[in-house]
Design brief:
Oligomer: single chain
Number of helices: 11
Shape: globular
Number of domains: 2
Largest sheet: 6 strands, mixed
CATH superfamily of the largest domain: Creatinase/methionine aminopeptidase superfamily
Strand content: 15-25%
Strand order of the largest sheet: 4-3-2-1-5-6
Structural class: alpha+beta
CATH class of the largest domain: Alpha Beta
């Protein structure tokens, strides 16, 4: 396991050497996890990763000291405190960071600029130091997943399929959106520990239902009760030991109207067209284009409010993005969600999402759950 992180750090150091960078500074927790195996809930206490040609350091709050030392592959864990017994030591991130940076050459500093606090940029890069952006390099390193990473993502797909099925089976008139989520969560929490002892498991679900709530793509589930005729978009992500997949399905509660059926089938056809276009050499915008063109031809152009898909792996959403202005060429080993959606006021939202891996010949499904209207209609 540690070889994975050492190889990634070596890639950073090769890039640093090519750019004459003396020290790199990483702020985004998901980037830190990718490089060190350490990730914590930061809330109000930032964590900083420092890298030079010989050593690494994590600057962490006191409550993460044991955690960081237990799981990370870092040379030094430097701690800042917030309790009176440590009042004579560093009691803020920036005080400890100043101390640690004394051991790092800051002649030319690469910074995770997309995620760096303004305070760091203004006050902690020494006067006269040259700075360059590190964010693009980190993002590009995560574009293509290793065989090991893909295997870990695929493990989640097996379980997320059944979790969505449990949520589908829970749909009934009078059941709340939260209960729909809970059915899938309960299945996962009862079964995963047997198969993945001591694993870090993160399960997330959303189930906005009805003509008002289902047209809000990322609204949290609520205590709203399902009614006959509702359209419900069930979103589920599952991460096991840091790697995740996503599966989303649109459920129709009761017999669909002709308007609902037309919108559902247009969405389904757009997703199918986008998925079957996938292969190495295709450009990201072409995947978006094939889906949106079909939806526009069916008269739903004004109902499109987001891109066709995004990368996934460590983060719930990560680059590359499948959108109209991205000419990035897809490569073997990239992992995407494919999820064109339409949102029609007064009727509802319609979106499926599946996780797929780009292969040498095309693509492989990570998620595998029925997509057709008949299967996604909840019988009353």
């Amino acid at each position: 396991m540690s070889e994975r992180y050492q190889d990634r750090l070596e890639s950073i150091r090769i890039w640093m050497s090519e750019k004459d960078v003396t020290t790199s500074v990483v702020f985004l927790p998901d980037h830190q996890f990718y490089l060190t195996n350490f990730k914590a809930l930061t809330y109000s206490r930032p964590i900083v990763l420092l890298i030079d040609k010989e050593k690494t350091a994590l600057v962490v709050p006191g409550l993460e000291e044991v955690h960081a030392n237990h799981v990370s592959t870092i040379d030094q864990v430097a701690v800042y405190y917030e309790t009176d017994q440590h009042q004579n030591e560093a009691t803020s991130l920036y005080k400890r960071l100043r101390e640690v940076l004394k051991d790092f050459d800051c002649n030319k500093v690469a910074i995770d600029e997309q995620n760096a606090p303004i305070m760091f940029l203004r006050h902690f890069v020494p006067v006269g130091s040259e700075t360059v952006d590190l964010s693009a390099k980190l993002v590009e390193m995560r574009y293509i997943k290793s065989t090991e990473e893909i295997d870990e993502i695929k493990k989640t797909g097996v379980w997320i399929n059944e979790a969505v099925n449990k949520s589908y089976e829970a749909c009934a008139i009078g059941v709340t959106e939260l209960e729909v989520d809970g059915a899938g969560n309960t299945y996962l929490f009862e079964n995963l520990p047997t198969h993945f002892p001591d694993a870090t498991i993160a399960a997330h679900g959303m189930s906005p239902a009805g003509p008002v709530r289902s047209v809000m793509p990322h609204v949290f589930s609520s205590s709203k009760r399902i009614e006959e005729g509702d359209v419900l978009i069930h979103t589920r992500q599952l991460a096991i030991n840091g790697y995740r997949s996503e599966l989303e399905r649109t459920f129709i509660i009761g017999e669909p109207t002709s308007e609902q059926a037309d919108a559902f089938n247009a969405m389904l056809d757009a997703q199918t067209a986008a998925i079957h276009l996938l292969k190495p050499g295709i450009k990201a915008y072409e995947v978006d284009q094939v889906a949106t063109s079909l939806l526009k031809e069916r008269g739903y152009g004004e109902a499109i409010v987001h891109r066709t898909g995004h990368g996934i792996g460590i983060s719930p959403h990560e680059e590359p993005y499948l959108r109209f202005d991205n000419d990035l060429v897809l490569q073997e080993g990239m992992v995407f969600t494919i999820e064109p959606g339409i949102y029609i006021k007064g009727l509802g939202g319609f979106r499926h999402s599946d996780t797929v891996v780009i292969t040498k010949q095309g693509f492989d499904w990570v998620t595998d759950y029925p997509r057709d209207l008949e299967s996604m209609t909840v019988k009353l």
